[in-house]
Amino acid sequence: MEMRRQHFPGRAPIDAYGNGGFRFADMSHRGSILVLPSGIYGWEPAEPPRVSSEDLGRLFEEDPAPELLLLGTGEDLVPQGPELRQALRELGVTLELMSTGAAARTYNVLLAEARVVAAALLAVE
């Protein structure tokens, strides 16, 4: 059986989160997700809840780059290292840290405003 990386090719609001996953576009996904203008991808950082620029590699390939990355760090806000913020700044992307729930809600508002935004959302139980 061939396992393929999960990918939804488009933008969609996050309908629900919790129980270790997310619901969007009439589908559910177990695990964390990376939401980009090019689509929604299954995503697992190497050492959650810490995220590195390597974990966000696909974000650095987006053209054009999103103006903002909402990083949902789980149930609680978890500070990230300065190297992540610097790498994003060099790309022209502003980083906003928040809980996963707050990040999902904020993403939906910005998506409705047609903003070019991305979200990296760690799954919560």
Automatic annotation (TrEMBL):
Superkingdom as given in the UniProt entry: Bacteria
Coiled-coil stretches: none
The protein's name in its UniProt record: Uncharacterized protein
Organism of origin: Lutibaculum baratangense AMV1
